[in-house]
Amino acid sequence: MSNNPYIQCCVGFTLPAAYLLWPSLDVLGRVRGLRGEADGRRRVPSQAVSLYTAEEKRRRDATPWTLVQGILAPVQFVAFLVSLALVLHYLATGEGLWIATCSIVVKTLLLYAIMVTGSIWERVVFGRYLFAPAFFWEDVFSILVLALHTAYLVAIFADIGSPRQQMMLVLAAYASYAINATQFLLKLRAARLQERGVPASAVAEGS
After folding, report:
1. Alpha carbons 121 and 125: distance in angstroms, whole number
2. Which of 77, 121, 131, 176 is the most buried (most CB within 10 A)?
């Protein structure tokens, strides 16, 4: 909706030039029709970006689980960076297996914590524990991340594979985690952009 004044302005200023450049009014009509279709395509994604209804946003801001997620997410990311450095050090030198293993276990426990509390948060805000439409694909990928981390725990406790093979499994788990974290960051950025647009549209409607 915020693009409409700009588009109308462009049409108004280019209309005289259009009559000079295209003698056929039919051609001009087709061009203006294409502009209308493009404008319609631009409006559809902006509606699809909406992550929260007004009630969902109220519940999100009211629940303490939002703060819990806000604390756990950066803590887990720091643990990920430290553990990744230790894993790469072991793979490069063959030293530090014990501390690398401990760091992976800590990172995995943090992942479990953020998954459980995230599910509770999703239940409070959206009414379901997983696969709310606003975060459907992020949740799908989170299941893969959780499965890979869990597979590593099974490997070390059941003594499956060599330490180096286990570390390669960890790298796969960490790669999936990095992708999943990027998904959530992009989604949260979209939410912030949406919320910035709400006051502007409200002012426009009130004026």
Report:
1. 6
2. 121
Q: Which residue has the tokens 């793979």?
A: 91
Is residue 142 within 8 A of residue 180, CB to CB? The reply is yes
- What DSSP assignment string belongs to 165-199? HHHHHHHHHHHHHHHHHHHHHHHHHHHHHHHHHHH
Name, in order, each residue with C-beta under 8 angstroms of 30's C-beta and a sequence gap of 6 or more: none
**Residue 101 pLDDT > 70, yes or no?**
yes
Cα(94)–Cα(98) distance, rounded to whole angstroms? Answer: 11
**Taking a C-beta distance cutoff of 8 angstroms, is the pair 27, 14 a contact?**
no
% the chain with pLDDT above 90: 57
- CA atoms 151, 154, 156, 159: torsion sign: negative
**Structure tokens that stand for 140 in this block:** 């799908």
140-182: per-residue pLDDT in tens?
A: 999 999 999 999 999 999 999 999 999 999 999 999 999 999 9
Structure tokens at 19: 């009559």
